[in-house]
Design brief:
Layout (H helix, E strand, L loop, with lengths): L9 E6 L2 E6 L10 H15 L6 E6 L3 E3 L4 H5 L6 H20 L5 E5 L2 E3 L2 H7 L2 E5 L3 E3 L13 H5 L5 H10 L3 E2 H6 L5 E3 L4 H13 L3 H14 L4 H18 L4 H10 L13 H14 L1
Parallel strand pairs: 2-3, 3-5, 4-6, 5-7, 6-8, 7-10
Antiparallel strand pairs: 1-2, 8-9
Helix pairs in contact: 1-3, 3-4, 9-10
Length: about 290
Amino acid sequence: MSEPYRNETVLVEVSEGIAWITLNRPEKRNAMNPTLHFEMVDVLDRLETDPAARVLVITGAGEAWSAGQDIKEYFRDLDDKPAERARASWAAQEWRWRRLWGYPKPTIAMVNGYCFGGAFTTLTSCDLAIAAEEATFGLSEVNWGILPGGNVSRALTEVLGHRDVMYLILTGEPFDGKRAAEMGLVNRAVPLADLVTETTKLARTLADKSPAVLSATKQAYKYAKDMDFWQAEEYLKVKSNLLNLGDPDRSRAQGMSQFLDEKTYRPGVQSYDRAQQNDAVADNTEDS
């Protein structure tokens, strides 16, 4: 059993393969201060090697997902402390972008309320996102004299088109979860009352799949999309071979066997039986 997660600003609960990560500063609408950034770096480090956590869900306590950076604690209080500012800036970028964007396990943003400013980096770094229809999104920086910095402007280009990005950052207008789904910022928007149920369904779907295959699939898409076709072809060929050699579950062989030999799996219609696959792997291990 892994050691319990004890943090000041982040709650972690691992249940049935799902790690529920809750930004826990509800009195500040989960605005991100330096402490939260440092704690999230640690949380992601620990969950990466926690076998009980197969899927990560990031949400917020209270009525907000995250209101962005804490203006007082992250900005004003560190204006005359360059060393502390540098450390906080590193932690902020480390977990929200460098780690989360390429995280080896599937990640889901469950946007339950306010999502503003720097929270957009976290949102776009997650693989999937489900929002409450009642959630409020906004990039209001232009309205108080700054630009969407800290990699927000770059992160937006991962999920939105040119016209949508320009409109959001130049007007600063807020919008709801339904609009976020229409423009592709999130996968789906559902009533707030259904948010946990729908997110849990999605997380369980992912948790039932091969961890090695999920991780390789994420990397294949995220890294190949910026290559030209010839580079991508070579990269994906090598990636596929490495997956076949390194997958402890032998997913490809088991899936093909269930389809061709046992006739229990129909590609494109259902998922192969991973429980049966794991039983076979265990039998092989015992025989050896």
